[in-house]
């Protein structure tokens, strides 16, 4: 009988390794002595010893060479959450994830770590210290969330000790840090256009913002603890900074550090949410003749005006997780990394 060649434990692949989180993950894995191959639709950097495989993750034949000899795969690719392209989300996050699982099984990969999102349980209503047993959102707030739910279910259900294929999902929330293309750049762009003067609601809502290195740390702990007898197989884990902060305090701190004024005037949440919904509907109706993207989408307004913070006790207990960078230090390092976004730059 032919014996299956066991790939090296330190050989892994990162799908989505050119993206914000993916690149931080790749850099840390390389520092820790892993041999890494990156699969992405684009190549955004180079690193000595790193192999890049370019392609669409929906294409199994393109994926297979990147997974060859890897015992561990991280899947952190997704279309940008701000897109409203339903077909793209379904194709990449659902169909593409089926393809990733299939390719892992064919290539003899033993562990798959998915980057999910804490938003899979968020319906636009307050979540305070949410645990992993909260039900998936019945009415997901957008196509991104809808397809992240299906993606997580697919990966967790694929966990199969008999097949020697173990899976786990990491659910980060509000990732920020150097090179993030979303949070700080969108915030600064909104401020530069004079639209960051208002606080939505009373400004006391608590939220998790998670420094990217903590998210990376959570992923690596999950991978290293994923063994046939471990309790983590087939489970989701919240990974946060474990320091919920007022949404508007966080935004103000970043804005002020970059030289912009903090928002000061309050607007009722329900009014802004209603307006955002109306604008979004208008943008949909007018799409064939006029294309515009409102800054304050219903999703962003809901995130800005409600509580959404999560417990990471399960990760502490099962993975030995503890944030490695505090919120204060994370904000400092992030702000310093964006000199071009400073006022007047
Ligand atoms: N940022 C956040 O606050 C949070 C993110 N997450 C999750 O973390 C993961 C990483 O997010 P983040 O780093 O912010 O996102 P990025 O957009 O920076 O990274 C995703 C990468 O995947 C690539 N990609 C997209 N579609 C495909 C495809 N079909 N085939 C191959 N590669 C593809 C992207 O390329 P391109 O840029 O060209 O599309 C990009 O390089 C995602 O799964 C996201 O859902 C979860 C919680 C919070
Ligand atoms: C009100 C306003 C214009 C704020 C600017 C900042 C926002 C762009 C971010 C604030 C919270 C962020 C966030 C995400 C994207 C960027 C923000 C809306 C996610 C939707 C990214 C993907 C996820 O899985 C969940 C994130 C929640 C927080």
From TrEMBL:
Any one biological process term the GO annotation gives: cholesterol biosynthetic process
Positions of the 3-beta hydroxysteroid dehydrogenase/isomerase domain: 13-266
Subcellular location: Endoplasmic reticulum membrane; Lipid droplet
Record-listed E.C. numbers: 1.1.1.170
Reaction(s) the record says it catalyses: a 3beta-hydroxysteroid-4alpha-carboxylate + NAD(+) = a 3-oxosteroid + CO2 + NADH; a 3beta-hydroxysteroid-4alpha-carboxylate + NADP(+) = a 3-oxosteroid + CO2 + NADPH; 4alpha-carboxy-5alpha-cholest-8-ene-3beta-ol + NADP(+) = 5alpha-cholest-8-en-3-one + CO2 + NADPH; 4alpha-carboxyzymosterol + NADP(+) = zymosterone + CO2 + NADPH
The keyword Lyase belongs to this UniProt entry's keyword annotation: no
Molecular function terms from GO: 3-beta-hydroxysteroid dehydrogenase [NAD(P)+]/C4-decarboxylase activity
Alphabetical list of Pfam families matching this protein: 3Beta_HSD
Family: Belongs to the 3-beta-HSD family.
Subunit architecture: Homodimer.
Name assigned to this protein: Sterol-4-alpha-carboxylate 3-dehydrogenase, decarboxylating
């Amino acid at each position: 009988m032919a014996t299956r060649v066991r790939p090296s434990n330190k050989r892994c692949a990162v799908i989505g390794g050119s993206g914000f989180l993916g690149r931080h993950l790749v850099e840390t894995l390389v520092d820790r002595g892993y041999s890494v191959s990156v699969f992405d639709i684009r190549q955004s950097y180079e690193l000595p010893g790193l192999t890049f495989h370019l392609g669409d993750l929906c294409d199994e034949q393109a994926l297979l060479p990147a997974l060859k000899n890897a015992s561990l795969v991280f899947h952190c690719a997704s279309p940008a959450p701000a897109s409203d392209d339903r077909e793209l989300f379904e194709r990449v996050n659902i169909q593409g994830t089926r393809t990733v699982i299939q390719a892992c099984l064919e290539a003899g990969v033993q562990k798959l770590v998915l980057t999910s999102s804490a938003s899979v349980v968020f319906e636009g209503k307050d979540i305070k210290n949410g645990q992993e047993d909260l039900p998936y959102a019945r009415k997901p707030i957008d196509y991104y969330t809808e397809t992240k739910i299906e993606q997580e279910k697919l990966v967790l259900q694929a966990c199969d000790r008999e097949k020697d294929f173990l899976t786990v999902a990491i659910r980060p929330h509000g990732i920020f840090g150097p090179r993030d293309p979303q949070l700080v750049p969108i915030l600064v762009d909104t401020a530069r256009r004079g639209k960051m003067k208002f606080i939505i609601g009373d400004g006391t809502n608590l939220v998790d913002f998670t420094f990217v290195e903590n998210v990376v740390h959570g992923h690596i702990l999950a991978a290293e603890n994923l063994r046939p007898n471990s309790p983590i197989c087939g489970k989701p884990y919240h990974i946060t900074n474990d320091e919920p902060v007022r949404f508007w305090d966080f935004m103000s701190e970043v804005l002020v550090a970059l030289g912009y004024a903090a928002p000061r005037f309050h607007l009722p949440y329900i009014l802004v949410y209603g307006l955002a919904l109306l604008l979004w509907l208008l943008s949909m109706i007018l799409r064939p003749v006029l294309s515009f993207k409102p800054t304050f989408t219903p999703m962003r307004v809901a995130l800005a005006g409600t509580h959404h913070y999560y417990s990471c006790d399960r990760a502490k207990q099962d993975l030995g997780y503890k944030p490695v960078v505090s919120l204060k230090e994370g904000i400092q390092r992030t702000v310093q990394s964006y000199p071009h976004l400073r006022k007047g730059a």
